[in-house]
Write a structure and sequence with these properties.
disordered N terminus; single chain; mainly alpha
Length: 280
């Protein structure tokens, strides 16, 4: 009986060994068992399957890609920080220039008020009518006072001279042109020559100092002054006789007459009554 049990045990052990060997070959083990080398430090590594090694390599590749992405992001962040520093420096310079310009504009506006020259709100802050003519008459005094006050606020005389030198020729030309364009009479040959000289001077100074702000071209009104004012003045001998100032001057009287007659319901009667009142 014991002999039979021994044979059975040996048979089953052999089958188990054969089965394990088949399993090892079918599962692509990267190593063989060495029972005698207990405690081998490479045993755990050599006993990993190829599937496990491949998964580990993928994890390592993923970590490497993440590290590369972080490095690229860091370089972009440094570049963005440098660009931000440059933009801030440029903004500070512009802000400083705007502050200086703002102080001069404030002084200029105060000088206009002192000369009884007012900007009209309903004309978007522009000068109209008598205020504009007064500016043409007083611009030299205003600029001289502006320079004096600017120096008192530590502005350099050279920078103030550059500003005044940029605008003074345009004001001088307009101051000479405006009275001749508004004159309601025939102009003399000398006045026509003077008008032509200053129209050309305005076109030249505008082209030199201001045209870049308008795409390198004159504005329509500057173009008219340079190219067509003299032509029309020489053709007709006058410009003021064709102006609209006479009609503009009638606006206040017409507005007062219209208020007096606004209760008249008949449109034709209201218009005739308004006309009679405005002619008084």
């Amino acid at each position: 009986m014991l002999s039979g049990l021994s044979d059975l045990y040996q048979s089953r052990t052999a089958k188990a060994a054969i089965g394990f060997g088949s399993f090892a070959r079918s599962s692509n083990c990267v190593c063989t068992l060495e029972v005698s080398r207990v405690g081998d430090p490479t045993r755990a590594v050599r006993s990993r399957s190829k599937r496990q090694v491949t998964a580990g390599e993928k994890v390592a590749e993923g970590l490497e890609e993440e590290a590369l992405a972080i490095e690229v992001a860091a370089e972009e962040a440094w570049a963005a920080a440098a660009a931000l520093d440059e933009a801030k420096a440029e903004y500070d310079q512009l802000n400083e220039g705007s502050a200086i310009s703002g102080r001069l504009v404030k002084i200029y506006n105060e000088l206009l008020v002192a000369e009884n020259i007012e900007k009209q709100l309903y004309w978007n802050g522009q000068l109209v009518g008598p205020h504009l003519w007064r500016l043409f008459q007083r611009y030299a005094v205003i600029f001289a006072t502006l320079k004096e006050k600017g120096i008192g606020l530590s502005f350099s005389p050279e920078s103030l001279d550059n500003i005044i030198g940029k605008f003074s020729p345009a004001f001088a030309a307009l101051a000479a042109i405006a009275p001749l364009m508004r004159a309601t009479r025939l102009l003399t040959p000398a006045e026509l020559d003077h008008l032509e000289t200053n129209c050309a001077a305005l076109g030249a100074t505008w082209r030199e100092h201001f045209a870049a702000a308008h795409g390198g071209e004159h504005t329509p009104k500057v173009h008219l002054i340079e190219r067509h004012v003299v032509e029309q003045a020489r053709r007709h001998g006058t410009l003021g006789m064709f102006g609209e100032e006479a009609v503009e001057a009638e606006h206040p009287a017409w507005a007062r007459a219209a208020q007096l007659c606004r209760a008249i319901k008949n449109p034709r009667a209201r218009l005739l009554a308004t006309k009679r009142h405005s002619e008084r």
